[in-house]
Specification:
The structure holds 2 protein chains of 2 kinds. By secondary structure, chain A is mainly alpha-helical. Chain A has 2 domains: 1-35, no CATH class; 51-301, MetI-like fold, CATH 1.10.3720. Chain A has helices at residues 5-34, 52-58, 61-93, 111-123, 126-136, 143-150, 167-192, 196-204, 209-237, 239-248, 262-271, 276-300. Chain A starts with a helix and ends in an 8-residue tail after the last helix. Chain B has helices spanning 12-15, 26-63, 68-73, 85-92, 96-127, 133-142, 148-161, 168-193, 197-204, 209-220, 222-237, 241-246, 255-269, 272-292, 294-305. In chain B, helix 2 crosses helix 14 (272-292) and helix 8 runs antiparallel to helix 11. Chain B is globular. The chains are: A mainly alpha, B mainly alpha. At the A-B interface, helix 1, helix 3, helix 4, helix 5 and helix 6 of A face helix 2, helix 5, helix 6, helix 7 and helix 8 of B. Chain A: It comes from Streptomyces qaidamensis.
């Protein structure tokens, strides 16, 4: 197997690695470097300014607002999404009524149907989902308010995306809507691999379904829940929140910056305001937040690994 | 659950396991009751969520067949007649056909590129020992977790300096680069599971390394390629952030971008029905792909989360 081995390896790796280095690694390294300059992005000239951008960032109210919102996205969104998904997945896979002569543990009737339908939003572009809900939230002619009118709640007509107190929640609800199904399927796969004897034993000991969930299912599923949590958090800090906030909320990140998130702020500073260096500084902050988030979740979630 | 009409059996629940022999008769009844109440409840919740998922999509389809006036006056009513002209107007006048074509070109090119380059790199990393193997592997894998946005600002200037801004092939190259981390990760694991004996036999018979790869290993890796291919198809078809930054020429827009731009400009023109038709058009290919390749889609996407 030695003949021409290295030539082959180099030949096969050169192109993929080259593209990856040029378009992913190199810009990534550059952006950390640029955060110490006063580069505008408009002209090729710039000089080093040390930590100026970083101290400016610490005094920037909008930066703090965006950080606050991003943290909310990364912490609250996974809790709600994963909580809902765990509940649905448990119902679908374990919550079924015991049938005569059937297996001890069954899902509710039509469980595969639910899995298929719940997964739908996951395959749609987040941009298209955001557009769709921007229409649904429209205060005058949107589906939501007219639904409220339809059931007799004429006086409850929120502005949704136009209301600074509500806009952020409305945007987050869309992300929950689009991601729950993914976790239902993910957790279903995890639950399917839990041996039925575990459940049998729990049932014989008189455990009801709530106890079964907290004492059997959740501990055995913990690894999946944890990696799902990190995955969701990274998405919520990055691409997903960018699309929903940029598309759904008006102006510079919602009314009075009430929905701005870090990733959107990076985009605006770089491509709208011509402050490329400052944008990369916020980008570095975003990287720090992302890594810290992943580290914290992994750390908090660490427990004894259960083998089965 | 609090409104249950049979509160009587519930207090017995905590005592049941202790005095097992005495309480023999009641448990079946209790279990059945609890089961029924819980079943109604769980089914109810599941149905409600299914409804919440499907309704917005149905609403979009319904709206795409209405005229503008009834969209505003009665958003939830069925269309009085099917306005297919919305669809043809969106397709021709609103440039949906151009966006569609651009998307097909970009996604087609980058999908093939991603699969070819990704499987080449993954094959080498999975099957050959050489210094730096682990380093290169983790270099690729690392790309799955860092925020793309950070690289996006300098990336814009890299692409610009190469004269690739606002070009289809430029977008293809960038899509490939950003699809490689997951593709390499997935396919490396996949190539490790394939038996080595066949490849070795071919090599002994005088086939070169590259010939062994293209004629023997690639066909064997077909299931893996399909899974990762669908994953990339969805990801690239749905991509929004990269084209928004790297592709500002109105003629080169991809679907997601085009639709968002259309929504902004349509606010002035007022062709909402056409816009909804465009929206539904963009959803159809992925929904169709999902329904046909359901198992692979789920496999590919869930493998992505469990890195």
């Amino acid at each position: 197997m030695q003949h021409g081995k290295y030539r082959f390896i180099v030949g096969f790796l050169a192109l993929p690695l080259g593209l990856y280095a040029l378009f992913v690694i190199w810009p990534f390294i550059q952006s950390i470097y640029y955060s110490f300059t006063d580069w505008t992005g408009l002209s090729p000239e710039f000089k080093m300014v040390g930590f100026d951008n970083y101290s400016r960032m610490l005094d920037d109210d909008i930066f703090w607002k965006s950080l606050q919102h991003s943290l909310l996205f990364a912490l609250l969104l996974p809790v709600v999404t994963i909580g809902l998904a765990l509940f649905f997945a448990f119902m679908i896979n374990v919550g079924g009524r015991k049938r005569k002569n059937g297996p001890v543990i069954t899902g509710v009737r039509g469980s595969s149907f639910y899995k298929i339908v719940y997964f739908f939003p996951q395959v749609l572009s987040i941009a298209i989902v955001a557009l769709l809900f921007a229409f649904a939230y429209n205060p005058d002619s949107g589906a939501l308010n007219s639904l409220l009118r339809g059931i007799g709640l004429d006086h409850v007509q929120p502005l949704w995306l136009g209301d600074p107190d509500l806009a952020l929640w409305a945007v987050m609800a869309v992300l929950v809507w689009s991601t729950v199904g993914f976790f239902v399927v993910l957790f279903s796969a995890g639950m399917a691999s839990i041996p039925a004897e575990m459940y049998e034993a729990a049932l014989l000991d008189g455990a009801n379904r709530v106890t079964t969930f907290f004492r059997v299912t959740l501990p055995l599923l913990w690894d999946t829940v944890q990696s799902g949590w990190v995955y969701m958090g990274i998405l919520a800090l990055g691409a997903e929140s960018f699309a929903v906030v940029q598309i759904m909320t008006t102006g510079p990140g919602g009314p009075d910056y009430s929905t701005t998130v870090m990733v959107l702020y990076v985009y605006q500073k770089a491509f709208r305001d011509g402050q490329a260096a400052y944008a990369t500084t916020i980008g570095v902050a975003l990287l720090v937040v992302t890594l810290a988030f992943a580290a914290v979740v992994m750390r908090l979630g660490r427990r004894e690994r259960l083998e089965y | 659950m609090k409104t249950t009409e049979t509160p009587a059996p519930l207090p017995a629940e905590s005592g049941a396991p202790v005095t097992k022999t005495d309480v023999r008769p009641p448990p079946p009844v209790k279990e059945k009751k609890e089961g029924t109440v819980l079943n109604v409840f769980s089914h109810g919740v599941l149905v409600i969520w299914a409804f919440m998922v499907v309704m917005p999509l149905l609403w979009a389809v319904m709206t795409s067949f209405k005229d503008d006036r009834s969209i505003f006056s009665s958003p939830w009513s069925l269309p009085d007649s099917l306005h297919f002209d919305n669809w043809s107007r969106a397709w021709t006048q609103a440039n949906m056909s151009d966006y569609f074509l651009n998307t097909v070109l970009v996604v087609g090119g980058s999908l093939i590129g991603t699969l070819v380059l990704g499987s080449m790199a993954a094959y080498v990393l999975a099957r050959f020992d050489f210094p730096g193997n682990r380093f290169i592997y983790y270099l690729f894998i690392g790309g799955m977790s860092f925020p793309i946005m950070l690289a996006l600002v300098p990336l814009f200037y890299v692409v610009n300096n190469m004269g690739l801004l606002n070009t289809i092939h430029g977008l293809i190259l960038v899509y490939i680069a950003y699809s490689l981390p997951f593709t390499v990760f997935f396919l490396t694991a996949f190539f490790r599971t394939l038996p080595t004996s066949i490849a070795e036999a071919a090599f002994v018979d005088g086939a070169s390394h590259s010939r062994t790869f293209f004629q023997i290993m690639l066909p064997m890796a077909k299931p893996g390629l399909i899974s990762v291919g669908i994953f990339n198809f969805l990801g690239q078809w749905n991509q929004y952030m990269l084209p928004t930054v790297l592709n500002t020429d109105p003629d080169k827009r991809v679907l997601t971008q085009g639709l968002v731009q259309l929504a902004v400009s349509q606010g002035y023109k007022g062709d909402w029905s056409g816009l909804f038709a465009g929206l539904v058009m963009a959803m159809l290919p992925v929904l169709a792909a999902y329904i046909v390749f359901q198992r692979q889609v789920v496999q590919g996407l869930t493998a992505g989360a469990l890195k």
